[in-house]
Write a structure and sequence with these properties.
The protein has one domain (3-215): Alpha-Beta Complex (Spore Coat Polysaccharide Biosynthesis Protein SpsA, Chain A). The chain is 27% helix and 24% strand. The chain is built from nine helices and 14 strands. It starts with a strand and ends with a strand. The relative contact order is 0.18.
Length: 278
């Protein structure tokens, strides 16, 4: 059975002072703890088993979500005293992973259809599928180059200007086969972006970019129902229609109005366009 894993161990240094007393993954966005948006997207894909990879102030996150029963899910946890990178966190959950797993960075707000990404992954018989997005300037991101069939040819993490050869970046959402765990060392810090994915491509393993993220028509989809559901999960009662809005832009605006602190979460819409809340 396909599971999901959210990398939710970040300290949120750029969200301070908001993240001094509350972990970054549950900082409220439009008055809703951020992780609820990701969990809603996971549930819409029919996934009911979730692993939360924690590090900073883990108890505060566990107290909110518990074992997941309240939300119709099974939620389990891993905890790293010292963060070991994105791939290291995946390795730390090895005993909980027995099948294909959808992995999300814990600071990405998305309306990507995960069912489509999983379907694409299965059709390509890929070992790793990476959701990608197009941006005007990829210098601050991980550049992903793929052929016409979507097979990844090269990764360049945060390229210099003279290394930029395209406009497609890693959006921080992956579908991974369990076999990838064998490629991750048991000790030390390991990054999917800098270590594991480039090594897989070099070895000729099947790593694909998600094509539907590149082919979308460019409209930001309305998420209203999902956000209302997430609000209900949070036990906040009636949703404020002004805060919920009709898409990522309105939620971003509502979140930005609620605090003077700089937000540093990435919004990836179904158009594949990232919106940085900074």
């Amino acid at each position: 059975m396909i599971k999901a894993l959210i990398l939710a161990g970040g300290k949120g240094a750029r969200l301070r002072p908001l993240a001094l007393q509350i972990p970054k993954p549950v900082v409220p966005l439009a008055n809703i703890p951020f992780l609820f948006f990701q969990i809603d997207r996971i549930k819409r894909a029919g996934i009911t088993e979730l692993i939360l990879s924690l590090s900073y102030q883990p108890r505060k996150i566990m107290d909110i979500f518990g074992d997941g029963t309240r939300y119709g899910m099974v939620i389990r946890y891993t905890h790293e005293e010292l963060p070991r990178g994105t791939a290291g966190a995946f390795k730390a959950a090895e005993n909980l992973i027995d099948d294909t797993t959808v992995v999300l960075n814990g600071d990405v707000l998305t309306d990507t259809d995960l069912k489509d990404v999983i379907r694409h992954h299965q059709e390509k018989q890929a070992e790793a599928t990476i959701v990608t997005a197009r941006v005007l300037n990829p210098a601050g991101y991980g550049l992903v180059e793929a052929d016409a069939q979507g097979r990844v040819l090269r990764f360049t993490e945060k390229p210099a200007e003279d290394e930029i050869t395209g406009d497609t970046i890693n959006a921080g959402i992956y579908v991974l086969e369990r076999s990838i765990l064998d490629l991750i060392p048991a000790e030390g810090s390991q990054s999917f972006e800098r270590d594991i994915f480039p090594a897989m491509v070099q070895r000729g393993l099947k790593v694909y970019a998600s094509l539907e993220a590149l082919a979308s028509g460019g409209q930001v989809s309305a998420a209203g129902a999902g956000w209302v559901e997430a609000w209900a999960w949070a036990g906040a009662g009636e949703a404020d229609s002004g805060a919920v809005g009709s898409g990522a832009a309105s939620v971003a605006a509502a979140g930005a109005r609620s605090t003077p602190a700089r937000l540093s979460m990435a919004v990836i819409t179904s158009s594949g366009t990232p919106m940085s809340l900074r």
